[in-house]
């Protein structure tokens, strides 16, 4: 009986020591992973809030017609067409939300990563986004737009868009682009 108890105790000790070390051991990925060196720490923080504003129905799928332009209009790189306005509206904001901005993202142009890429055949152009209103600066993809104040639980965030050539010779064809957006509340 003593031997069974000793064997059981030894097995429990081995299992417990394995469990204790299993979460603290970093295994070597091997030489195929490349040269290894010291690293650092990444700390994540944030907050989950109870609610935010609502994007209005008309702003969930905005259509912006940039028009038809002759390829010969673009005589060099960085030639822009006229700007076309559009807006994103929100409502039902809680009183804690004071300002709102927009973060656009999408397929970036291969020649200029600040522009939205076009699909459909045209080559050498991208779609440039601008803040509307008093600040008409460019909104780069992946960057937050200028913010606007929320009043009475609502806000309208104005923008402009245009075609911008990225090379001296533009090829004709459809020039469609899709930008996804997230709302940024403060």
From TrEMBL:
Q: Which segments of the protein form a coiled coil according to its record?
A: none
Q: Which InterPro entries match?
A: Adhesion_dom_fimbrial (IPR000259), Adhesion_dom_fimbrial_sf (IPR036937), Adhesion_dom_sf (IPR008966), Bact_Fimbrial_Adh_Pro (IPR050263)
- For whether the record's keyword set contains Thylakoid, the answer is no
Alphabetically sorted, this entry's keywords are: Fimbrium, Signal
Tell me where it mainly resides: other
Renumbered to this chain, the signal peptide range is 1-22
Keyword field contains Signal: yes
Q: Which family does it belong to?
A: Belongs to the fimbrial protein family.
Q: What is this protein called?
A: Type 1 fimbrial protein
- Species of origin reads Leclercia barmai
């Amino acid at each position: 009986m003593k031997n069974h108890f000793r064997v059981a105790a030894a097995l429990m000790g081995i299992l417990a020591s394995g469990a204790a070390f299993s979460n603290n051991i970093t295994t070597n990925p091997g030489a195929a992973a490349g040269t290894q060196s010291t690293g650092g720490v990444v700390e994540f923080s944030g907050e989950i809030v109870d609610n935010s504003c609502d994007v209005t129905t008309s702003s969930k799928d905005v259509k912006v017609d940039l028009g038809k332009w002759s390829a010969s209009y673009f005589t060099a790189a960085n030639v822009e067409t006229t700007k076309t306005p559009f807006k994103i509206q929100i409502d039902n904001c809680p009183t804690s939300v004071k300002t709102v901005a927009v973060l656009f993202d999408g397929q970036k142009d291969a020649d200029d990563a600040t522009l939205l890429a076009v699909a459909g055949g045209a080559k050498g152009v991208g779609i440039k986004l601008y803040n509307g209103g008093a600040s008409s600066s460019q909104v780069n993809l992946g960057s937050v737009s200028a913010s606007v104040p929320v009043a009475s639980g609502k806000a309208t965030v104005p923008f402009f868009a245009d075609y911008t050539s990225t090379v001296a010779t533009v090829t004709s064809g459809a020039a469609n682009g899709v930008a996804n957006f997230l709302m940024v509340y403060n």
